[in-house]
Amino acid sequence: MKLIIATIKPFKLEEVREALTEIGVRGMMVTEVKGFGAQSGHTEIYRGAEYAVNFVPKIKLEIVVSDPMVDTVLDKIITTARTGKIGDGKIFVLDVAQAVRVRTGESNDDAL
Fold it and tell me: Into how many domains does the chain fold?
């Protein structure tokens, strides 16, 4: 099993969720986060005062999938979330040692 952590632009969330549901992803965790990378923030003007926005709003997706699904999920996130502009996000893939469904006690792939 693998844990896929993806950061994407907030307006892409629903489109990515629909695309992942179509390929059989049955669940994910979504968190509103702030961060910066190559984008590194920008300045805005509010009520006549200029101020720096050092952290940009993003959405963090956490998805656990079986090993055979990893490449399909990655491809779907990349093609759906890509705008071609700076700040499209990042994806990390980590190994998952164990998963347990609390309600039934099912473990590993059965818990997904």
Answer: 1
pLDDT single digits (tens) 90-106: 999 999 999 999 999 99
As beta bridge partners, residue 93 has: 4
The model's pLDDT over 73-88, given as tens digits with 9 standing for 90+, comes to 999 999 999 999 888 9
How far apart (Å, rounded) are the C-alpha atoms in residues 20 and 46?
37
Alpha-carbon gap, residue 62 to 47, rounded angstroms: 37
The CATH number linked to 88 is 3.30.70.120
Q: Which domain holds residue 106?
A: 2-111
Q: Which long-range contacts (CB under 8 A, 24 or more apart) does 16-22 make?
A: 16/61, 16/76, 16/77, 16/80, 16/81, 19/76, 19/77, 19/79, 19/80, 20/63, 20/73, 20/76, 20/77
